[in-house]
Design goal:
One of its GO terms (molecular function) is benzoyl-CoA reductase activity. It comes from Aromatoleum bremense. A hairpin with a 5-residue loop joins strand 7 and strand 8. The longest helix has 23 residues. Helices cover 50% and strands 12% of the residues. It starts with 12 loop residues before the first helix and ends in an 8-residue tail after the last helix. The protein has 434 residues and is α/β, with parallel strands linked by helices.
């Protein structure tokens, strides 16, 4: 295929893989070092447990299950175990993978499934609390659930913010009691600042993809944003995101493309079928690059409207003269920061998501949209056909394909490839000779 732009591999690619591997090994070996283990979702407000010490390690369930999903054989083994236990096949596939591994006592990164000391979980998705209620029951560990379902951020009130902030104070009391350790406000404030840095900077990185050619493709971005889903309040994650931003900014300055034959720009939606990521490489044979998605940008990225009307990373409080020197201030700002997360907004109204998707189409110069009708995740797929109608009405070509992020039995590769072929034809694209 003819290359239009220069390309090169990310210099930080190896470091990203190393950090991810170290995260899972640290969790497995935490007890050897006298550390603490806790389990919850990628959306758990992990700066709270970070206040217990620098030897506190988490296992966030969704990225762990996504890693398992890439291993088709082990993923099926886990889901079979969950279904044999009595859980329905139409439940969240991440949840079934996690449960199955726990019941099999097998850890994807070797050895027995590591038992957490406690569960610390955020509730906005319909499955989140039930997921970890079963974990806490089976592992016989204490559990805490934080309700953040207070409505869209555009309708935020002091009372709604207080409701979440007060629960965070309760969460601090819980982690102290569950761990037997005294909570350290300085460590907590440091973790809050790290999370704000990580999530604002990831949004900044995604915003760099507005240029042509795109410096990153979505398949690559999956291996980068995942670090925020693992430990967004850690120093190592915040520092990595700053380092990554500088590299991607340099790629933009030098015109380095993720896809050297970029001709059309696509956008996807929700989690991909993790065991079939090669679909993105197939798109490249048409000269198509997926610049990302609301999921990729905002699962962990925190955004705001910039003075010029564009979307970019949310300004850090201390850059606006707001100091974070005490627990109460940190808790309230932390709650507000997370409640502004774009990916939480569409749980209340699909039209909010449609508006955000149309914004990405405009600002990232998107030519077509691929919607994954993901049976594996009710939370992020809710309202997806309303999103399709809104995108089509706005005049952007859109295709759908059925699948499941974690359960390969729900994905038809041949049929999906045929739908991609038809969509590429609609966009006026032909496969390019190698």
């Amino acid at each position: 295929m003819a290359n239009k732009y220069p390309t090169e591999q990310l210099k930080l690619w190896g470091k990203a893989k190393q950090l991810r591997e170290q995260y899972y090994q640290n969790y497995a070996r935490a007890k050897e070092k006298g550390g603490i283990r806790w389990s919850g979702s990628a959306w758990a407000l992990d700066a709270i447990p970070a206040g217990l010490g620098e030897d506190v390690y988490s296992l966030t369930g969704e990225p762990y299950a996504a890693a398992v999903a890439h291993d088709r054989k082990f993923a099926k083994e886990c889901m079979d175990a969950a279904e044999a236990y009595g859980f329905a096949r139409d439940l969240c596939s991440y949840m079934r993978i996690y449960w199955g591994g726990m019941h099999l006592n097998k850890y994807a990164f070797g050895g027995e499934f590591p038992k957490p000391d406690f569960v610390f979980q955020t509730q906005i998705c319909c499955s989140h609390s039930k997921w970890y209620q079963h974990v806490a029951k089976e592992e016989k560990v204490p559990e805490f659930y934080l309700d953040v379902g207070v409505g869209p951020y555009r309708d935020m009130t002091d009372a709604r913010l207080d409701y979440v902030a007060n629960q965070l104070h309760d969460g601090i009391e819980f982690v102290e009691k569950a761990s037997g350790r005294k909570f350290d406000d300085e460590l907590f404030i440091k973790a809050v600042k790290n999370e704000m840095r990580s999530t604002s900077r990831w949004a900044d990185i995604c915003a760099l993809n507005k240029v042509k050619p795109a410096p990153l493709d979505e398949k690559t971005m999956y291996s980068l944003y995942v670090l925020c889903t693992l430990s967004k309040s850690s120093q190592w994650c915040a520092d990595f995101m700053d380092e990554l931003y500088e590299e991607v900014k340099d790629r933009v300055a030098r015109g380095i493309a993720a896809v050297p034959n970029e001709t059309v720009r696509l956008m996807t939606d929700t989690q991909p079928p993790w065991s079939f990521l090669k679909i993105f490489r197939y798109l490249e044979t048409f000269g198509a690059v997926s610049i990302g998605s609301l999921y990729t940008f905002a699962l962990e990225g925190i955004w705001e409207d910039k003075p010029d009307g564009s979307w970019g990373g949310r300004t850090l409080p201390w850059e606006k003269g707001i100091e974070i020197n005490d627990r109460d201030t940190a808790v309230r700002l932390y709650a507000d920061w997370n409640l502004s997360k774009p990916q939480w907004q569409h749980f209340y109204d699909p039209s909010i998501k449609t508006e955000m998707m149309l914004r990405i189409i405009r600002e990232w110069q998107v030519d077509g949209v691929m919607l994954h009708l993901n049976r594996g995740c009710e939370g992020l797929s809710i309202g997806i056909m309303e999103n399709r109608l809104g995108i089509a009405k706005a005049g952007t070509p859109v295709m759908t394909f059925e699948g499941n992020m974690g359960d390969e039995r729900e994905f038809d590769e041949v049929r999906t490839q045929a739908r991609v072929d038809a969509f590429m034809e609609q966009l006026g694209m032909r496969r390019q000779a190698a």
